[in-house]
Protein: Orotidine 5'-phosphate decarboxylase
Amino acid sequence: MESKVIVALDLEDLREIEETVRELSILTKWFKIGYQMISSIGIKESVRIVKSFNCNVFLDMKLYDIPNTVARAIRNLTKLDIDMLTIHISGGSKMIKEALKSIDDGSDVKLLGVTLLTSFSKEEAKKIYNQDETIDVVKKFARIGYDMGLRGFVCSPHELKALKSEFSDCIFVVPGIRPSWSLKNDQERFATPYEAKLNGATYIVVGRPIIKPNNNLKPSYALKSIIEEFSK
Ligand SMILES: O=c1ccn([C@@H]2O[C@H](COP(=O)(O)O)[C@@H](O)[C@H]2O)c(=O)[nH]1
Structure:
């Protein structure tokens, strides 16, 4: 069965990126390209590398701007050979509507709405959104996204179960994954691969525990152990 673990390629060096994809593409066919990689080697080169190993690209752009700007960016980005792309739901209903409209009918790109970043603690979410519980912020965003037509979300493992029961026809891509043996780093709302599986994740996204493991584990061993835990 194809692995549903997406490796976040938060790396900068071209050689290191190529070697990482070469080593890990034996175990998973999904890689996430984000700011760190594109700001060092560029979007087109990033996509080219992942595709050269016959793997799928999750382009995590987290687009957030006025509707016209986002729509035009999406029109360009979907000309690249990518499989999933993100926008911030907090960009608003109009932005989401234009974003969805700008994806060609013939394109298979799945547009995902980011709810609330996993690096937000309850206190931080309260400061910005004036809600006591992160679940209330996340549910509100997911409802807006769903009503505008989104059928895929990025959310933390903490709110996953509630979203899954309300939006059962959607896919859930879940970062903030920390196996028991790894550091939390800047993640605030996190859980183990097994917990994410139990709560209904379609895909999990994992970066540092695989590519920069704190215990000198080889990336391929770290990934193998995460795939096993997520498949239990
Ligand atoms: O809410 C979010 C949305 C995206 N991410 C991205 O996922 C990876 C996670 O990396 P780790 O090293 O496993 O923490 C990273 O690329 C983020 O940009 C997220 O963490 N939370």
The chain has a mean pLDDT of 97.
